[in-house]
Amino acid sequence: QVIRGENLVSNVTKLSEIRSSPSPIQSVDIKNVVSKTVEKIKNLFEHRKIIVQIPSQKFLVKANDLLQNAIENILFNAIMHNKNETIEISIQALRYKINQTPYIKIEFSDNGVGIPDTRKQEIFITREEEESKFRTGLGLSLIKKIIEYYEGKIWVEDRIKGDHSKGSNFIILIPEA
User: Fold this and answer.
1) By C-alpha distance, which of 160, 164, 118, 156 is closest to 139?
2) Which residues contact 169 (CB under 8 A, 6 or more apart)?
3) Euclidean distance between the first and final Cα of the chain, in Å?
4) What is residue 132's DSSP assignment?
5) Number of helices (H), then strands (E), in the chain
6) Assigned fold of 2-175
7) What is the Cα–Cα distance from 125 to 113, expressed in whole angstroms?
8) Who's near 88: CB < 8 A, 6+ residues apart?
9) What is the full per-residue pLDDT of the chain (177 aa) written as tens digits?
């Protein structure tokens, strides 16, 4: 509960920063940000057995310091919503194009409880936009706002197509720098 509380306070602060004065966009190395964030999350959850595979290749994206917070929230959710003895998270990055626009596609696959199809869209909705009485917290709506600030996209799929109970695959597209 303490970890969740600290995460909520951090998310409220970051949401306020996005709305008022976010730091400027610059070239950010995905591999470096992911490595630092994974280390931080593993220290936070040192009592859990967590195996994380990270990208081996360096990719530069148009982002800022808020990217670490977005990745932190994805990893935080992957751990908090995982009942397995060993938490497995695979992070992959690759080049991707949409209409000749170059992006870096980052996928976060986990072996957690997954997200039913009926909830996949609403998990990114903020409380102000929410019509449903179900909430997952600020984390995912914050991630969406950060990624959209970069002119990117985010969505979630089943880790194993057609079976949400086998885990989630969060996909982020961020413009390549």
Assistant:
1) 156
2) 107, 108, 109, 110, 156, 157, 158, 159
3) 38
4) S
5) 4, 7
6) Heat Shock Protein 90 (3.30.565)
7) 20
8) 51, 52, 110, 111
9) 455 445 444 545 555 555 566 678 999 999 999 999 999 999 999 999 999 999 999 999 999 999 999 999 999 999 999 999 999 999 999 999 999 999 999 999 999 999 999 999 888 886 554 444 444 455 788 899 899 999 999 999 999 999 999 999 999 999 999
Alpha helices in the chain (DSSP H): 2-20, 30-44, 66-80, 139-149
DSSP string for residues in 19-50: HH-PPPPEEEEHHHHHHHHHHHHHHHTTTSEE
Number of Cβ atoms within 10 Å of the Cβ of 27: 10
Cα distance between residue 49 and residue 63, in whole Å: 31
Cross-strand partners of 34: none
The full set of domain ranges for the chain reads 2-175
